[in-house]
Specification:
homodimer, alpha+beta, 434 Repressor (Amino-terminal Domain), Jelly Rolls, six-stranded antiparallel sheet, three-stranded antiparallel sheet, 5 helices, 10 strands, about 20% helix, about 30% strand, DNA-binding
Amino acid sequence: MSLPSQDERISDDIGIRLRLVRQIFGLTQRELARRAGVTNGAISLIEQNRVSPSISSLKKILEGIPLSLADFFTLNFSPSDEVFFAADDLTEIAHQPEISMRLVGRRTKGRALGMLHEVYQPGADTGETMLRHEGEECGIVVSGCLTVTVGTQERTLRPGEAYYFRSDIPHRFRNQGTEPCVLISANAPPTF
Amino acid sequence: MSLPSQDERISDDIGIRLRLVRQIFGLTQRELARRAGVTNGAISLIEQNRVSPSISSLKKILEGIPLSLADFFTLNFSPSDEVFFAADDLTEIAHQPEISMRLVGRRTKGRALGMLHEVYQPGADTGETMLRHEGEECGIVVSGCLTVTVGTQERTLRPGEAYYFRSDIPHRFRNQGTEPCVLISANAPPTF
DNA sequence: AAGATTTGTTGAAAATCCTAAACGCACGGA
DNA sequence: TCCGTGCGTTTAGGATTTTCAACAAATCTT
């Protein structure tokens, strides 16, 4: 009967995980227990890794937060867990002098999303050999004009106008105007 | 990661899911039981949804496949298509009068990415009950000022400044300034 | 400073899960 | 046909989890 000294049967860090999540959302064991329809004692034992909850219990508890089982197990507290705020230190990743592409957030692996602050000087051109890569991308022109070619379609976008397409369709960006063009774009999964 | 609505439906039937996975990997209950170090009876009961396994059991069983808990609860596929160019006809999706959120691209299912052109009038606030959803999001302030609260951190961003964070951390946007704030944001997977 | 609340932690009993062993069924070979 | 093998299912009982209720510590209130 005695409590088995936490052998590997008790899954990893379910308890720690639950406690962390619960605290992040500012709930007490009792409050969460009330919402979930379980007892606070159960939550206490689980968080201490003294027991390994049944799926049904864990699911009930997570519904009180609420959080799906999938999200609970997928939640990654270490990698891209940080909050990013940037002033002028967006990292430059452009390859051409007349094009500036500055990345929002750190260039870490495992991101779901990439966002760029781009500036195309007059005459800037990503080239006749059209770009092609995996994923999808979109953007909004903030100032200036940008000529976007996607597959057989071409269009010159003005401030406030936008695009969205699959990145495996050959594409090209050009500034045929006389003033610099500012574009904010995003892609998923991130290319950079 | 998967969409919450789908998660709920899926995680309801752990049993069906386990049986499906087991069969996909061409294992019998007994063979899986042997590899996992549990009894075939347990697997049978679980697959029939006669019991709700403990996390430790389910984890042991999945290790026999092998498959991680996170992977077990997440199974998703989705394609996408079409080229999108928009002028002023970005679709409005905001629910508050003092906040405008206009979506780039069509509101189709299976997109990899969502991009919004947002305008926060002075005083606009997404609310004290912080927002929280799956995925990651980022944005750049184009004009005006925006106060962004993420978890315990808060910061007021000015034009050119940006943020990036995991969307499951409670967050809130407010315009505490005197002029409208224009923000371009992106999220993956798309919330809208 | 004492009392009232709120917090997380326990112990024993009730509820639920897991194991061991047996059961029924289907298939194949001698 | 009879036997052996392999499949998923079932049952009884031991093992584990969950509840219920009480507990100590910390924080507020008065």
